[in-house]
Each structure stands twice: as C-alpha cells, then as structure tokens.
Amino acid sequence: METVTLTITNQPGLFLEADCISPDAFAGKKREEIVDLPVYIGREVHRLGDFFEVSGQAGATAAETKVVVNGDLSRVKYIGMKMTAGEVVVNGNADMYVGAWMQGGRITVNGNVDAFAGTGMKGGEIVINGNAGNYLGSAYRGDWRGMAGGKIVVKGDAGSDLGTFMNGGEIVVGGNVDVHVGTHAEGGKIIIKGDAKSRLGGQMVEGEIYVFGNIDVMMPGFAYREDVDLEVDGTKGRFALYEGDLGERHRKRKGQMIYGKLYQLVRP
C-alpha cells in the first residue's frame, strides 16, 4: 500500500470543504495532481496545496492507497466522504462529515470529530479514538436513510441523535451518550458502554440498543419482558430486555410482531 501524507500548513479562516481527501480521489494520481485537487471555502475554489503540504505517492487504486492527515483539522469537513476502499488516518481533531456516505475501507481518527460522522454510511469502518459529535451514523437532515452498514467505534463519548433512521450496521460507544439514540431506527445495533440520558429508541421500529450503564429516563413506549444472559462486544452479563417503541406501527415476520429491542445491563 502506498501512502500520501498531508500536513496542514495554512488554517482556513472559514470552514474548508475537502471531500477530495480520500483514497478514491488520490488513487492513480501523481503528487502534483493531488496538490491541484479542488477544495472549497463557501463558493471560493482553492487548491488542496494551498492549505496542505503533500508528500508521498498514491497507489494505483483506492484499495492500494493510504492517506495520513496531520494537524488540527477542526475546520476541515468531509474527510473520507464516499470512500470505497483504502485507509485514512487523521492525527488530530476533524470537523463534520468524516466518513459520510462511506462504502468501504477504514478511517482512524486520533482525536475528536464533529457532527454527522458516518452519516448515511453503507460499509467500511470508522474508529474514533476521542469523542464524537451529534448525529453520528444518522441520516442527513430531511432524509430518512441513515447508516445502513459498516461499523463505527468511538472510544470516548458521543453527542445527541446518534443512529437516527439507522437501518443496519453497528455503532459502539465506549463512553456516554446524549439524548435521542436510535430514533426512527429500522435495524442495526447500537452499543453504549457508559450512561445514556433520555429518549432512547423513540419511534424505533426494529434494531437493537445495548446500554451497559444507567439510563436517566426510559421511554414510556418500551415494555420490560425478561432478563437474558448475553455476550455483547466481549462482555458477558445479564441484561434486562425491553421491547418497543410500542407506540409505532410494527411489521410482522412469520406471523410475529417485530419490535425494537433495548437491553440494559443488570448490576448486581
């Protein structure tokens, strides 16, 4: 695998839209061509090289290309957007839409990310070694197609509206989450290893939510069923199973009503 290294040298005054920072956009290009790729500040068009020092070379295909981005990227949006293969490593904090609509490959962020990371994600893996903002793995605002595949792992905390309209895939949060988890979900798995606030699974149709810590307020549309013994992401324990959201319309499968499932670890 060939590696292209970007180091930010000129912080944008406003937010920089750089969806070209992707193995797909770099593959098959020489360094001089990568430097000339377009990036945007509002309606202004700039060159990637106006903000980044570029070194190394890309592979012939996305799968053969690794992109390493160094520095404070907290004003740089769309890193790894729509990527299909290869690898991106961000050594610093990044702005919104990291891995948005991603289809394959792997993104590692050694820092925090802002909102909408993994929005509309269909495949691949995103690992965030810091905290994640709001709308992680969710649908774009006004859309109903949230995360459908792939996996997102957050080592720290995550914000609100995680997994909104989620249809598939998996999200694992090592810390705590804010309100509105799995709203309108129709599939997928969400694992929260810390605490959750309120409104988990609101209007949830199908899918699974696992909470290892406390839930501040349980949605009234979820009904307790039983305690079950499970192994979740390497942790064995007894979980209280709740089904819901009972206020939603639910489809049937083999004559049985399908509900979303919310599991909370039972503390001794």
From TrEMBL:
Gene3D superfamilies: Glutamate synthase, alpha subunit, C-terminal domain. It is an enzyme of class 1 (oxidoreductase). Coiled coil: none annotated. Its EC number is 1.2.7.12. GO terms for biological process: methanogenesis, from carbon dioxide. One of its GO terms (molecular function) is formylmethanofuran dehydrogenase activity. It catalyses: N-formylmethanofuran + 2 oxidized [2Fe-2S]-[ferredoxin] + H2O = methanofuran + 2 reduced [2Fe-2S]-[ferredoxin] + CO2 + H(+). It comes from the Archaea. Residues 78-213 form the Glutamate synthase alpha subunit C-terminal domain. InterPro entries: Formylmethanofuran_DH_suC (IPR017550), Glu_synth_asu_C (IPR002489), Glu_synth_asu_C_sf (IPR036485). Pfam families: GXGXG. Pathway: One-carbon metabolism; methanogenesis from CO(2); 5,10-methenyl-5,6,7,8-tetrahydromethanopterin from CO(2): step 1/3. This is formylmethanofuran dehydrogenase. It comes from Methanoculleus bourgensis.
